[in-house]
Amino acid sequence: MTDLWEHGGMHRVVVVGAGFAGLSAARALIGQPVDVTVVDQRNFHTFQPLLYEVATAGLESGDVAYPIRVIFGKADNVSFRMAAVTGVDWERREVILAEDHRLPFDSLVVASGATARFFGIPGASEHSFPLYTLTDARRLRDHILRRLEDVDSHPEGAGARGALTFVVVGGGPTGVEVAGALAELLDVAVEHDGFAFDREAGRIILVDALDRLLTPFEESAADYAARTLSGRGIELRLGHLVRAVRDDAVELDDGTVIPTRTVVWAGGVTVEGTVAGDIGAPTGQNGRLLVGPDLTVEGHDDVYAVGDAAAVPWGGGEDADKVCPQVAQVAIQSGAHAARQILARVAERPTEPFHYKDKGIMATIGRRAAITQFRSGRVLRGTLGWLAWLGLHLVYLVGFRNKIVVFVNWSWRYLSWGSGPRIIVGEESVASDDGEPLASG
Question: How far is CA 91 from the centre of its chain?
């Protein structure tokens, strides 16, 4: 089945994915002499850096999501198609959608993102909770809150078989942020929500194969993160590989078995298994699409890969030969660059190489504790780092309403620590330690 495409002779651009990279590309083409279709299997954009806040009941789902149609509602040359992309017909120059619907294109932007990487560890994909989509975050939040309700009903078993043990795998920004937020959630649950279990029974264990946290950061910043997490009662198991994940435990490479019902997976991402791996184009490490200096996919001058889906070259300076990290700033900048190259080709101008402008990196450890590291190496930590983190995330959050809501929620939580949307919205029943269902969500 082929869709009819009425484009009035305009250059047709299809953008696959509505994450940071896809939105950046499409926004840069608003009002330009091209006909743009954004394709995504969800009808909303997710602000991924704040998913951990949803997962730990700090923000509502709607605070970090925004309808794609609303974003482009006033753009006459941009439309949205909610569909799953299954491949590309290179000969006919069509993007193939589910049920063999097709979208013709003159230029294609692949911004399909990445997904959790489990490194082939037995049981990891089946028994852990990744944190890459809004569905992941809501599922993890419901699971955590059910564990608290379960233990409250049976406080005598709080320490048994890992009922209140939370294992976070990965010492990068996501793992650090989740661990810190979990500690605050347990504190709030006992001090403000009236849960009967002993707070000391709640354990949070952060595991990473490397011997330090936050490897992209300066060592002093990583040390600060480790001290802060330890000071909040979080156990650090650094320099240890996860050997296996079971439904009731995590096994480490030194033979340690940690009984737990909750494993949060923040151990890295991969492009393998995403749209980028299904289009028949050359890929490199972790399945990332190989691109040229102007971000065109190898062998396809009219196809661009951006964001997490691509091995984006740093370009320029002492880091010219490096591949950019899979972070939001790279996605935003590479998406906009691809759009500019499409317009250059339409105007019959030569394309230009991509140059990443590193604006620094940041991670939050919890309330009034964060790290902001600038390109120069200067580091802000503690309350100053936290305020910088808050400000930057508000700037890039999509939608005026979302900015206001998140700002109000954060401000209220700062003044009234016990606030937060700690509600269970799933339908599944929660099981007690002996496997019997206790209550409905």
Answer: 34
Q: Tell how far CA 212 is from the center of its chain.
A: 22
* Amino acid 64: pLDDT: 86
Q: Choose, from 177, 251, 272, 298, the residue flagged as catalytic.
A: 177
Kindly state the tokens that stand for 385. Answer: 């780092």
Task: List pLDDT tens digits, range 286-322.
Answer: 999 999 999 999 999 999 999 999 999 999 767 777 9
Q: What are phi and psi of 239, to 5 degrees?
A: 75, 20
Rounded to the nearest 10 degrees, the angle between the axes of helix 219-231 and helix 173-191 is 20
Asked if pLDDT for residue 25 goes beyond 80, the answer is: yes
pTM as predicted: 0.89
Report all structural domains of the chain as residue ranges with CATH numbers, in order of start: 11-41+83-114+271-346 (3.50.50.60), 124-269+361-440 (3.50.50.100)
The verdict on whether 184 is a catalytic residue reads: no
Q: What average pLDDT is seen over the chain?
A: 88
Higher pLDDT, 29 or 420: 29
pLDDT higher than threshold 90 for residue 158: no
Encode burial over 250-266: b for 16+ CB neighbours within 10 A, e otherwise.
Answer: bbbeeeeebbbbbbbbb
